[in-house]
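Thread: quick sanity check before group meeting

JM: Hey all, I'm pulling together slides for Thursday and realized we never actually wrote out the predicted structure for the chain we discussed last week. Dropping the sequence here so it's in one place. If anyone has concerns about the input, flag it before I start.
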Amino acid sequence: MKLSTLSAISPLDGRYGKKTENLRGLLSEYGLIRARLFIEIEWLVFLNKKIPDLKLNQKSIQTLKKIYKNFNELEAKEIKKIENKINHDVKAVEYYLKNKMEGSSQLKKAKEFVHFACTSDDINNLAYAILLQELRKNHLLPILTKLKLKLKTMALDTASRPMLSRTHGQAATPTTLGKEIANFLKRLERQTTLLSQQIIFAKINGAVGNFNAHRIAYPQVAWPILAKKFVEQLRLSYNSHTTQIEPHDGIAEYCHVLFRINTLLIHLCRDCWAYISLAYFSQKKQKAEVGSSTMPHKINPIDFENAEGNLSLANALFHFFAERLPVSRWQRDLVDSTLFRNLGIAQAYSLLAYETLLSGLNKLQINEEKISDDLEAHWEVLTEAVQTVMRRYRLKQPYEQLKMLSRGKKMDKETLHHFIDKLHLPSEVKKKLKALTPKDYIGFAKELAKQAR
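JM (edit): ok, ran it. Output follows.
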């Protein structure tokens, strides 16, 4: 079968193909090959006039850069043809570039400086680093910013909307809907800041990290200084101490940040699902959609379920990458190369989940009546307030008295007020307690929610 959205093995390219097609130029084999070519060209240009035997003029440099600028899928196929012949992916890029340089007399003379003193992972680690950098900047952070803006709007709009809390699934001290949304917002803000600040390390120091080939060829050149400068001009952080491979501790940290972001968003998905189940939220109807193949009335919370599933799948991969990528045998084995090819999958599932979650949030409608009715049905949540005031006035066994009155029972307004009337408290205090209702007992929830500004 020819590859199509119907024949694709991965749902990312099949069922979800339209939603992920904008990632193909970055997270695909083509994207990796293109990034490798960019590094090979940039390293050659960087070495120009820094080593005695490489003196390219500006025209030759522009010709090199055009090779990258004009690179397309057909050119990538040429590299794959070379790879099929020699069975080495990075060397195939080197040979491709050398072949392209044959058309220029000056570049032809310089072609043996392509991939100069490099091992494959010098190219690979830099290629993956710039791909992660671009993905973070142009895809991950923008959609996470949209999620934060949506949560901020929801938190501010519902800052004053009293709501029954639930701890252990049971009725508990009231809050506001906006405050509960603000909780997620604050967590997401912290983690996205950490993601934006996460250092991406890279190296270009040869076969085992010691510049052996560099130094034997040009002993007068300060190779460690040059390598650092090259890595940093790519806006990456230089790792001076490596084996043949960059040890991937930074990639593990990157995965851990995304793992935490996804974890808190799984929490958000589950809470939204539960509030829909309680009828605190309803969902906007999409006229043509079908909720169930047999139950016509259904509007299922599928956006939150899909998002949770994809976030969980991504997290399983992020955890595995963080655990496995930093481990290599002696100076290198090939396990990391195989695993790196799947790093984009975890990020694609994450991005897919973020979009789906945002779609779900945009469909939510608040059921004010249901939320109010739930509060009014649970006057027992005010026993905390009463027993705390009793403590202030040193009444005996306040907690125990309220426990005997309310534990495991539903309480109405009259029962609570009857209890308050019998307390030895100042009359103004009793009046204040009897004026209290579940919807008023929200502490600083409203103010905390408005800090989402």
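AS: nice. The chain has a mean pLDDT of 96. DSSP finds 21 helices and six strands in the chain.
JM: adding both to the slides.
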